[in-house]
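Suppose a classmate hands you a notebook page containing two proteins, each written out with its sequence and a corresponding row of structure tokens. How would you begin to make sense of it? This section walks through that situation. The first entry is reproduced here exactly as it would appear on such a page.
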Amino acid sequence: MMQSDKSPSTESHRAAAAQLESVRCAVFTISDSRTLATDESGALIERLLIEAGHEVVDRQLLTNDVAPMRAALEAALVRADVDVVLCTGGTGLGSRDQTVEVVRPLLDRELPGFGELFRALSFLEQIGAAAMLSRAVAGAARGKFVAVMPGSRAAVELAMTRLLIPEIKHVLREIRR
């Protein structure tokens, strides 16, 4: 029998987290081929955040170059006006896919459930066994929540609507406790 996610503890945490007004987010698209004009995934993240009542305080397009990517992420992590950093792209197995290698060392605590749930949902609802090729990752870094999603629009929509938007305040509350 599947257990409901509506345990008294979970519900009380969500209720406390709902008191947060809006979450201030930095959105980074990592791609060697997109421009801000053609960045559908970053635009979708921004739109979904705003529709959910959150604020996008920074949105950038970064290449798959390690040093500039690390610099941008580290700069976001020290900003007082950023609560959450959301990255899309660079999660595959290609030689230029470096997002996970840049983000993971910045995490104080990894949240393995994000990648596990993302891949499970992706497997069941979208791409089947190819879901194992995703290296989606998330965790806490310097008191902020960081999540890395694949670059496809479908993957971003899945991660944002099924995992991140519903739990973003709850995750942030837990990080700050």
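The notebook's second entry, a different protein, reads as follows.
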Amino acid sequence: MNAASGRLRPSDIAWEQFHDPHDRQTTPVRVLKADDPYTIEADFPPDFYAADPWHPHDTLYVFTKGEMRIGEEGSFFPGDIRWVKAGHIYGPEEAGPDGVTFYLVSLGGEVGLNWADIYDVPEALQDRLSTLKDLWGRVNFADVPFQEGSAPGHEVQVLHNASPRLIRERFAPDGDGFTTSHAASSLTFVLDGRLHVDGEGWFEAGDIRWAHGQQAGAPVKTDSNGATTIMIDLLA
């Protein structure tokens, strides 16, 4: 029987060079989760340039260090989250002078290197794109106010309320009586502090918790550091 939830610790996973069958220059990545949602951490060196790509699945970027410039979308920094629909051609991607590090979450399968000058977007994806209003989007933590959460000392920011649902949560120091909650499979990134999930132990800053399917909430507590997280709720 497969586990219903678990922990990813990027620091325990080795960096490797992302493989491009066309021998174009790529960057180091860590493959954090090799099943849906496929999740990697990418590290672009300073001024790295990648020509216009598209993804075979809806994709999320969670920026953690540095700067990424993406065509007419502008620059992205830590605190920004970007999403792009499958088949939408965008770019180019350009790292800033200090490089950029980010998580890439592919909703449906492996992240593909689909260069627009080599691969045509499949007709089925083109048809889907024609029905969508927004082909990409972005949000920054500063754009959305916190609101009261499920218990005293718990605050939430609803960053995106469609699929995927993005929620930033802030847990007060020495807090107890919190619970995990998600409507579907989810990924939770611990941005800072420490968070204890009943039956699973302590999650440190940098850890990622995954959960498959809707589950009853597990008790959660913090130590003197408190904790801040981002949850990606993978609604159908």
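A careful reader of the second entry would note: The chain has two domains: 9-140, 144-233.
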